[in-house]
Structures are given as C-alpha cells and as structure tokens.
Amino acid sequence: MSDQQETKTKREYRKGNPLTKTELNRRSDANKQKSHKLIRTFVPYVFAEKFKIQCKKQGLTLQDAVYEAMVEFQDKYFNEQK
Q: What is the pTM of this model?
C-alpha cells in the first residue's frame, strides 16, 4: 500500500513544505489576472484613511467598496449613452 502512495503525485502544498505567504499571494494574483484588471492609483492620504474607516464600519473590504463605486459610476455614466 505504501508503494501506491509513493507513486501518486501529491499536490505541492501537501508535501510537508507549505507555501510561503508570498508564494501563495503570487499564485492568487496570477489566477486573478486571468479575469481581472489591476488598477493602481494614488489618492490623498486623508481621503484613503477616511475611506478605510467607512469600509470597516460598513463591513466591506476596500476591494468590495471600490467595486461597488465602479458599478454605480458605470450605471450612471455608461448607461446614459444608450
């Protein structure tokens, strides 16, 4: 029975060497890039801190809040052109 276990290929993270947080994040980012677009921007520090506080109060992640804002923006401006 141990011969069968040795011949099976195991997933990399189950071989006793767990992935580092950095490697796990890299793989996650690589998977996200297949269906998402990374957008980076600079905003005033004060605005960013207030935004983080409001997101926390609402129970949202920054990603979810920005997504919702983008959807509202799209509905307001892109749908008018029809």
A: 0.60
Distances (CA, A) of 24 to 13, 19, 31: 10, 6, 11
How many other CB atoms are found less than 10 A from the CB of residue 60?
14
Residue predicted with more confidence, 17 or 33: 33
Cα–Cα distance measured from residue 52 to residue 23, given in angstroms and rounded to the nearest whole number:
26
- Altogether, the residues listed in the chain come to a count of 82
- Average pLDDT of the chain is 84
Check: CB of residue 62 under 8 Å from CB of residue 51. yes
Task: With cut-offs at 50, 70 and 90, classify the pLDDT of residue 19.
Answer: confident
Query: Helix crossing, 45-58 with 62-73: angle to 10°?
Result: 100
Quick one: the chain helix, strand, coil %, rounded to 5?
A: 65, 0, 35
